[in-house]
Design goal:
Chain A has helices spanning 45-53, 92-109, 117-128, 144-156, 174-190, 202-208, 242-256, 261-276; strands at 3-14, 17-29, 34-38, 60-65, 68-69, 77-80, 162-166, 194-199, 211-215, 222-227. With 291 residues, chain A is an alpha/beta fold. Chain A has 2 domains: 3-259, Rossmann fold (3-Layer(aba) Sandwich), CATH 3.40.50.300; 260-291. In chain A, the strands form 2 sheets. In chain A, strands 6-7-8-3-9-10 form a 6-stranded mixed β-sheet, sandwiched between helices. The longest helix of chain A has 18 residues, at 92-109. The longest helix of chain B has 38 residues, at 178-215. In chain B, 76% of the residues lie in helices and 0% in strands. The chains are: A alpha/beta (291), B mainly alpha (271).
Chain lengths: 291, 271
């Protein structure tokens, strides 16, 4: 099912004034695509995700999933947040069952039979994510990587048409992050599901996605739409191949073009040197190497 | 080769845990030093035993009171008053505080009013309560209710607000409806904090029951203390104070144990 953003726009009104977070943006995402939203912080990529999730209302434009207009959050769009948003009072299994339990409770109230099928599927997800041994543990007993696996399993348990991920691996250490990237990759190959993945990590975006939307800094807009030329089979070693690094270089330049990094750096260096030179009367901004 | 000796952490490092023996030792030491101080002062010839009786005398009198005094009846009476007043305030404060914490409009409706009432000193309400409810049980239970309710409702609302908003958002994306989020997420998530607030309020309820009983009662710990004071029976007063302290300590301990049992899942590092 196709996701379509039509002139999607978001501005925040605060006491300080009106802040545009996302300039009018249009794009379509086809079924089965893995699309990364890449950009610096405050570029509107998370805003876009929250709008698609229905957790925020757009100031302008529309979002369609298939022929359904998105107006509020729903089970058809699963979400994974950066901070592990597990229910701390539920065990791992209960967390993953949360959705089907809700549905069962309602069915119970309307006096029809609860379905066991959904819970079976949730259990097989636990198995898939390597969580079976921890099924009865509470979130506080889990490592960050484990918690994020549970969060992904919980989102997938609904069989959502769209999986929305907001920097899901941002809080993890480098090793765990790669582990989960690989898992995410395999998951997507074996059950192609449309994914919108927000990140500011270029490597992560290239490794995972079939397509990358590059956002510019505030106010946010999509400045480039790049198809990732790698196939389904992506070993981690891909990250050090020339093709990968070439694409990485391209994206790096794209992300840094509106902010000349070297200029910032000179300025910073000057300040560092100044703070180290005593007495302060010695001001030689040009000879920075002396420190 | 010998393993490197593990550095013993200092007992006086800022905000660092100390071994449990050291903690218990410190706790025991504080009690012992107070008792020693009491012994010393009360045995000085210049001390009037009517003001400060010796610990031995207090314990001896206490033994008598336990055997044939009204202590048990007083304790039961005060306990029942506290329990009724406290339960009444929990039953009303819990749903109201939850709504206040869940909906900002509810907060607007209840919070400013509650803050206002909270600052009226509760003992100042006693005359009003007596006129309204008489000098019977109702006015005492009402005093405890008023004393704890307005505090508890604000604390429940605070705890509800403290549940991470992301949990609310994730519940919505998992298909939860609004009432389900309130029920299954906000209430559940706030429960450890609410239980702790209940523990604090329960402590205050014991203060208010004594206040109520000092004013008008025929039974109860506060009433008895006032009566002892009229006859200058200070050892008995002191023993009743000891009992009050112990009962408070025991109930607080009970709350903590039950809380830890019920909310073992809570991440204690965050609180």
């Amino acid at each position: 099912m196709m996701l379509e953003l039509r002139n999607l726009e978001k501005t925040y009104v605060t006491r300080q004034g009106v802040t545009p977070a996302l300039l009018p943006t249009s794009c379509t995402v086809k079924s089965g695509e893995f699309v990364s939203l890449l950009g610096p912080s405050g570029c509107g990529k998370s805003t876009t995700l929250y709008l698609v999730a229905g957790l925020e209302r757009p100031t302008g434009g529309e979002i369609f999933l298939g022929d359904q207009r998105i107006e509020k959050p729903g089970r058809d769009r699963g979400m994974v947040f950066q901070n592990y948003t597990l229910f701390p009072w539920l065990t791992v299994r209960q967390n993953v069952h949360f959705s089907s339990r809700l549905a069962n409770n309602r069915r119970w109230r309307s006096l029809s039979l609860p379905s066991i099928k959904e819970e079976d599927r949730a259990d097989s997800l636990l198995d898939l994510m390597g969580l079976t041994d921890f099924a009865d543990a509470h979130p506080r007993e889990l490592s960050g990587g484990m918690k994020q696996r549970v969060a992904i399993a919980r989102a997938l348990a609904n069989r959502p048409q769209l999986l929305l991920m907001d920097e899901p691996f941002g809080a993890l250490d480098a090793q765990t992050r790669e582990e989960l990237q690989e898992m995410m990759r395999l998951l997507h190959v074996h059950q192609p599901r449309t994914v919108l993945f927000v990140t500011h990590d270029i490597d992560e975006a290239i490794y995972l996605s079939t397509r990358i939307l590059v956002f510019s800094a505030r106010p946010g807009r999509v400045i480039r739409d790049i198809a990732v030329p790698f196939g389904a089979d992506r070993p981690l070693e891909l990250k050090v191949t020339p093709e990968f690094l070439q694409l990485k270089r391209e994206l790096f330049q794209l992300l840094h073009q509106d902010r000349p990094a070297s200029q910032d750096r000179d300025d910073l260096l000057r300040r560092v040197v100044r703070s180290h030179s005593h007495p302060p009367s010695v001001s030689q901004p040009s000879s920075t190497t002396k420190s | 080769m010998k393993p490197p000796a593990r550095a013993r952490p200092s007992l006086f490092a800022l905000r660092q845990p100390v071994p449990s023996w050291a903690y218990r030792l410190a706790a025991g030491l504080s009690f012992v030093s107070v008792i020693v101080l009491w012994e010393w002062i009360s045995h000085r010839p210049s001390t009037n035993p009517i003001f400060i009786p010796t610990p031995e005398r207090v314990l001896q009198i206490g033994g008598d009171l336990l055997r044939d005094g009204n202590l048990w009846a007083d304790l039961k009476m005060s306990f029942l008053r506290v329990t009724y007043g406290f339960l009444l305030s929990v039953v009303i404060a819990l749903p109201l505080g939850l709504l206040m914490g869940a909906f900002q409009i509810g907060e607007g409706f209840i919070q400013p009013l509650t803050e206002f009432i909270r600052y009226i000193p509760v003992p100042a309400l006693i005359p009003v309560l007596m006129i309204m409810f008489g000098i019977g049980e109702v006015s005492k239970v009402m005093l405890i209710f008023i004393g704890t309710f307005f505090q508890l409702v604000l604390m429940v609302a605070d705890e509800t607000r403290r549940v991470s908003y992301e949990l609310v958002q994730v519940s919505y994306t998992l298909g939860a409806r609004r009432y389900e989020v309130v029920n299954l997420v906000l209430l559940r998530g706030a429960m450890p904090g609410i239980f702790d607030a209940m523990r604090l309020c329960h402590g205050w309820a014991w203060s208010y029951v004594i206040v109520a009983e000092l004013v008008a009662a025929n039974e109860g710990l506060g009433y008895r203390i006032l009566k002892f004071s009229r006859f200058l029976q200070t050892p008995k007063i002191w023993f009743y104070l000891l009992v009050l302290g112990l009962v408070g300590l025991a109930l607080d301990f009970l709350f903590r144990v039950v809380g830890r049992r019920l909310f073992y899942w809570a991440d204690t590092s965050k609180r």
